[in-house]
Design goal:
It is a single chain. The protein has a three-stranded antiparallel sheet. The longest helix is centred in the middle third of the chain and has 10 residues. A hairpin with a 5-residue loop joins strand 1 and strand 2. It has one domain. By secondary structure, the chain is an alpha+beta fold.
Length: about 80
């Protein structure tokens, strides 16, 4: 379980509610539609998610925990995703 969010740099990430951290990041639209995450059953489902069900990027930051990723690693990842310091 998880959600897809558009990063500040315009690319996409998948946040896992199981690991409480991002599992995929810097995906292009095509990456996601080609099932880079292994979590969509068809391109039509992927299009629907990207067009109607994106979760605001703030939720990536709000839901993160240090259970499976160190805070330092997450902060570095945020910068890579285009988050301003």
């Amino acid at each position: 379980m998880g959600f897809i969010s558009q990063q500040p740099n315009g690319l996409y990430c998948r946040f896992s509610s199981v690991t409480d951290c991002p599992t995929h990041w810097n995906m292009t639209r095509e990456d996601y539609l080609n099932n880079a995450t292994g979590n969509i059953s068809s391109q039509a489902e992927g299009e629907d998610i990207l067009n109607r069900h994106l979760v605001p990027f703030e939720e990536v930051k709000n839901r993160f925990t240090t259970l499976n990723m160190r805070r330092k690693e997450f902060n570095e990842l945020l910068r890579e995703m285009g988050e301003a310091e």
